[in-house]
Fold these 4 entries.
Entry 1:
Amino acid sequence: MPLRSSGAESSDAEALRFWRFDGPHAVWLFWGLLVGLTLLRLALAASLGVTPDEAYYWLWSRGLQGGYLDHPPMIALWIRLGTTLFGEGPLGIRIGGPLSALFGSVALCWAGRDLLASRAAGYRAALLLNATLMLGLGSATATPDTPLVFFLAWVLWALGRLIATGKPIWWLAVGVFFGLAFDSKYTAVLPALGCGIWALGTPAIRRHGLWLVGGCVAGLVAITPVLAWNAAHHWASFVKQGGRAGDWHPLRALNFLAELTGGQIGLATPLIFILFGIGLVWCLKRSGTQSVPRLLACLCVVPIAVFVQHAFGGRVQANWPVVLYPAVALAAAATGRRIGLACGLGLVLTGLVTLQGIAAPVPLSAHHDVIARQTADWSGLSERLHKELPDGEALVAGDYALASILAYQGPGHRVFSYDKRWAFLKRDLQHPNSAALVLRESETPDLPASWLGPERARRVCRMLRGAPMICYKLIPLSLPADTQMYRLP
């Protein structure tokens, strides 16, 4: 059943206030802004250096399979499509991010039209989501969160069609999109569980009966590759991700919860975080009598409860709660509150963070300049390291991220790693013959001492604004004849 909130404004033009503008051209201004943001994100995606995690996912894309140790396969598929069309550079790796943010925003607009009976509410939700640092900067990079948010936006669209039309056949689309979100990141199971609770707790929806079952079957079909891969690999990915649930450190819970809250204030940006909170409370207050607020509340409360529980056992990474963002953006839009200042601040903060990452106008240290630490001068590192190697000597990196970026930035060079996760990527085992271990200056080798030669005196550094940022050392290796390591790429 459609919902019209008493606090929502009656017309699209009135509700779509952005920096306090009104009038018949408001919708065109919204779409112009969205296209402009997409072009800026594409430019950013093409200009920033590839990060180690992105290089790791790029290696996944070189050998597509139904799953990987760390995540489901969707990000690898997106990168493979992007690099096939646009080459192996940063834009090819990241092209899916800006485009998915654009088309995911379209889905959220349509979801607002159907779920909240107001196109303006959809525009407001899309503006709020695009003004977050999570989407503003995250959509210009290649991470599993990008397809996750995209498919969850389409889940909301399908649920909107279900409610607006009253036709239970839309459960099939809901199931497929939840399945594709799960193929992107396992946290998609949390809003899917919330959706199930809503369906079973809403008599009119519960009567959809076999169509509900059909939606579940459609979702299972969509995740079949992930299930098959895990079954063939002793459920390794599920064990890795689910193994965190058993941790219990309640004495550190306050610290972890504070980190979780602070991370969300930063990723959502402060004023949008407040609007998200107001929207969630608004839905909770109406969830007893109104179906749509109950749906949005269920989609949000289940993940929140799981993350809070997890905080009693370990750290909740700041990006995990992005699984909430599409639904909570709709919840915030439903309240009818003005969003101009919040969106303006969010876009400005995103712009400042981006500018700092590209030009570094504020002289931060390498410890605090997170973007520069991830993206700056990796290619220079690879070249300088190989210049320090005698002819025919290979590089060995224990850390998977360092090995990945060296393999990406040094095509034609021999790079090896002994991290066991490469076994899940079917990398060939070889003896490196002549090789040198590369690791950060502050790290201690985790290989047997009898394999290690004397450290080479020369350090090779990544540079930040002309000064050394992070330095690496090289240690010659004398490997036993029966020792084999994984060859990259």
Entry 2:
Amino acid sequence: MAKVLCVLYDDPADGYPTAYARDDLPRIASYPGGQSAPAPSGTDFTPGHLLGSVSGELGLRAFLESRGHTLVVTSDKDREGSVFDRELADADVVVSQPFWPAYLTPQRIAAAKELKLAITAGIGSDHVDLGAAIAHGVTVAEVTYSNSISVAEHVVMTTLSLVRNYLPSHQVVLDGGWNIADCVARSYDLEGMHVGTVAAGRIGLAVLRRLAPFDVRLHYTDRHRLPIAVEDELGLTFHESAADMVPHCDVVTINAPLHPETEHLFDDELIGTMKRGAYLINTARARIADQDAVQRALESGRLAGYAGDVWHPQPAPADHPWRTMPHHGMTPHISGSSLSAQARYAAGTREILEAWLAGTPIREEYLIVDGGALAGTGAHSYAVHTPAADG
């Protein structure tokens, strides 16, 4: 029998919901490109309910316990002697979300003698040390595409919020004011601007498609060039690198995975080549942007705004400088954890567990590491830094 350790974020401050704003969700059977949505043998939850918090349990308890497996759910993961660390010692499976990541460091993986599978409920598995997972034969899987469109929608929302100066203008209303000049002094139209994405995979391409109707000029850079038909359809300009692209853009959105090639990509030097007054949107991973460089660029006016929902560490401490830097539109890490997305990534987590427990293959598109190597989506998206590679 397997022990599954699930690390989820805390319930709402006023308790687990007993009612919801909507009664149902649209049914999403497949994603752009044809990949089918998660298809487990069954589910034990109501789509549209809060599944990603501790009491939601990703809808897994009845499924696992009815088959004799053990499920441990906690939000306690970061302090010394945490529940996560205590329970990890004999866990077969760890499940966590990018929004509340259970960091599987090389030390933790080495100490987890029974660990065989690490599942990301959502997308983005950089909280797992992939090199250590490869070395110890741990399979890493994520629910690819389950919340990609959710994140793309968040990118569009935050882009418009920054360019139109929405958040400060809304605050004027909350404060009882009517200071129109103050609101519009930093407000512009998105129309006609040049917008570029660093990476044009599932999220980046979805962002480009959603921004095209705003009559903007679209740019992208990616390790894998898109088909010419897609470039022609959306009027895309391809650039070989981020350094080539960003000087042309009024808005840059980061949609790349975090790995050694992208860590601290947006440092003082690269940001210094951007247009004065450009906007930077980062819903990918915080460490793709240098924390201090972003703050300096906002304070100097090099950047007109920065928004996103990814921080380092997560959760961000109360005194994190990104909370108080000027002209930002930061949120907690929520872009991929809408109730709509939760229904999909909870179902996908169960689908992965069903396959693994039955000894049948996990969907190729869900795999990040398998058989001691990058696999599936991981082989396409990630690069693993190992000492041998230094030579």
Entry 3:
Amino acid sequence: MKLKQIILSILTFISILYVTLSLLGSWTQPQIQSRLELYQTNLVLQASEWEPQTEDRANWLTLRDNIIGKDAVNSALQQYQKVQESNYQNLQRLQPNQPSEFSRGELAQTIGELELRIGIMQAVLGDSQKAIATWESLISDNGNYPTSATAQVLVGLWTEPPDIGADDEDILQANLEGWFRFQGLAQLYDLQNREDVLQQLNNQQQETSENAVYKLAIVSAIPGFGLVSGIILSIILGVQWFLKREQAIINRNADVEWSVPWTAETIVQVFVLGFFLVGQLLIPLIFQLLGLRAAGDVRLQAFYILLTYMILVGGGLGVLYLSIKSFFPLPEGWFRFKLWDSWLFWGFGGYCVALPLVILTSLVNQRLWDGQGGSNPILPIALENRDPVALGIFFFTASIAAPWFEEVLFRGFLLPSLTRYFPLWGAIIASGLLFAVAHLNVSEILPLFVLGIVLGFVYTRSRNLLAPMLLHSLWNSGTLISLYILGSGAN
């Protein structure tokens, strides 16, 4: 065995070990989906307060109820209690492994904040005694002063007779958000008989609630339009395939094969050296030696993530070029970018078909992992920050740079290369699985695997990398837009 093959074998073993440990490490990490559901629940609570003052009030109320349901607070309470139960289970899982105190303390703080909100919903639903019991359980825990202090204020507002402190308003303003802050302040102002301030608060809440209705309509419309379009398109393509199987558009290029001049060693070399070694080991090591880290200001975090990714792109494409340079000129059909072609149809059509498939898979996946399994680190940062510069950088990274690089690597190189050893469908499945695993979060493997299969199918039928790039970009863009809308409605 040559020295090169020995080194490559060692690096491959290290890469496999790293990926395995990363997937195992994500096992106990929370999914972004659980947080997204709570953000959407908060928007629903905001929207539930909207009382349109127009001539067609009845129609607007019908629209509101169709979007949020007629029992929004009770549904939100059940959602919060479900997430809270999952958090308690996560806390129990963490203890035997003895994680850092920061991790345990962070989860305990999250549990306390959720308990505050659960108590407010219980109070609004008329069960003050249960709400007070919920808050009193937090008061006994002095580990988090803001949470216990806020719980003490809420207990005072809902006891008989009320116990109002001089700093209650400041504490509620500082430690509650959105609909929960409104409910706490409204109770305080009502007890203080501050009618003018209460009216001003109600007016502000009406404006916020109306905006929440519109935001929920947009968030629902993005996947809703895709779902309907995807189902219709799938039916049309299915009927066409049934009636004219050989001429069906989904069979286009199905028999066109790639000529693969390299072996599995080149495939492994590109991914081990260009993707895992550069992206997961070399870049973090260099940044650590230079003292660079993603911390502090959100713009710095965004620039850090973009810089990291662009170095990965440069390193990955550099290794790809050097690995296949000796095979130039490449056989026909490799790395095709055809601007004047049907890539718009394949990209947008693939997006519409992928939506119902991935959403259905995600629902099953959520039950399998019960809110655990990790998520892309960009998503929670994008969800919780409103800085336009940072969001613009995130958008460029996720919706332009990532689709371009990953499609070149996974669909442009990997999928055709695998056809040397697998039939076409086997290559699509294998490349889709590696695409999902490469994201290093165990909970994302199943939905990203389905998305990877659709991306592979679109590329093999269009034979144009612009098509899966468009699909990938639309997918990431839709996710970021939903995150922005949900995050903007949190407060």
Entry 4:
Amino acid sequence: MGKSPDSAIMRFLPVTTGGLSIGQGMSEQLQTVPFSLRDYRIVALSVLGGALEVYDFIIFVFLSVTIADVFFPPSVPEWLRLVQSLVIFSVGYLARPLGGIVIAHFADKFGRKHMFNFTVLFMAMPCLLIGVLPGYVTIGIWAPLLLLLARIVQGAALGGEVPNAWVFVAEHAPQQHRGYALGLLQAGLTLGYMLAALTATLITRNVSDAELQQWAWRIPFIIGGIFGFISVWLRQWLSETPVFMALQKEQQLVQKLPLSAIFRQHKYAALPAALLTAMLVSAVVMTVVVTPIALQKFYKMDAATTFEISCIAILFLNVGCVIAGKLADLLGRWQTVALYSVLLAVGTSVLTLVLDAPPKTLLLGYAIAGLCSGIISAVPAIVVQLFPSAVKVTGISLVYNLTYSVCSSIMPLALLALLHAHRWGMAVFAWGMMLLGLATAYLFRHVRCYSD
């Protein structure tokens, strides 16, 4: 990299840089750097903002029926209002790739920290706006239009948050603990789903239907907006990553568009990154999205019991993410992807076996499935190494957001259709994803990886 970075940055660099050995003494020192309290603080502040962003984004779907009644004409049939509400929710996902690319461009050009704060701010503002936005009865057609605008901004912000969070945490953590750090981050992000479900459930259980439609539905959005602004304030204590500072110091930042560099020099990294992202999405969709819906629609479980069981399963999923991240450091990234591809299929099969069992047995099976979903944190441990530091956020954001948008649009409906057709439909899908994961790990295990 030209001149040697200062000693503070050296802590985060690998044993070899550009094929040149740093030296045996430095090598031994790097291999024994512990995961410090400072590293935990960085992950915690990253998790706080990320979990709140997921909460802000997903709380919409839990209250979609009420939102449909508030923001669309009463003369429109109820089913059509709900469809319109869900369309506005989906638009947020469509905005992710574009927003992610724009934010990633500035993250690679001007720094990870600045855009890290920006994404939380631009998630919090629309969330708060939705919480105070007048309904259709008050401002007419402007109500759904402003709601649509808020969702577009939220989707763009979320598209920039996750890739930047991966890179920010990875570039701060000691290299031999990056898998563990990313496991902690992914565990924290999944908490956003549970926070949203918990908040929505508490609100709906403690107010009448009339109160919910009149004012109570606004509370989760206002809470999310307020905590988002608190996250912005807390993130001011974060520092720029040592890797980016080294790039600045050595004048190795991309001078032109980072996106053009991806297409010119690193397009072959896109395929393994996309396949791994599909694996990640499949685990999230099966565990967090489809199973709770299936329990209610196909197995007639009441919403309260479904929520309680799902929350416990998410907690076990969090534990599974941390374990998988640690294993990525100990066993190797590709070996961990292969292992958790198999475990994803096994865990889903166990869950399928007990879908119609009593709640306690179902809970055990669902917890096992959560523990086996560590692919969620094994994937970023590899993806953050597929692109060089100068264009890392752009490369990850491009592939991750495009793949996530496509898969999250198709997989839930496809899995529900499979489950409707046959009890073991989701398990068969999971075994198919296992084959995809094993093939990806085998075919790309020697692909070039960049260690910062």
